[in-house]
Amino acid sequence: MTEPSREATVIVRRLTDGHGGWEHRAFLWCPACEDVHQIGVASSDGRLNWNWNGSLTSPTFSPSIKVEGVQWDAASGFHKRSHSSRPGEATICHSHVEDGQWKFLSDCTHSLAGQSVPLVPVPSRIDIPGDEL
Ligand SMILES: [Zn+2]
Fold first, then answer.
1. All structural domains of the chain with their residue ranges
2. What pTM did the predictor assign?
3. Ligand 1 center to residue 110 CA distance, Å?
């Protein structure tokens, strides 16, 4: 087991809809999808909320996180390299995040299916929307 990173692996931002509504979203870097996954952890209307232990370094979220998409052509900038899906087929990234670890479930279409890996910080080159809390 690797010691949990002391660096923040979660970015939480406040997003507003311009009509008084707001949502707090957690942004996580997924090493399988090589992309950010985002989940709501609080909102003005009380919906869309995952449970979060409040930790930025060893987070736990529940329930599971399931990100579904479509595979793009290999020449596209949206092609997901680690997913085995063919262009036009579904891509699935299904995980539990517990104590700072990704636990990827077996229904994932990517190469980390069935594996557990530590969360890492969101790369600084990634533009995260919203306001800092
Ligand atoms: Zn993913």
1. 11-127
2. 0.89
3. 8
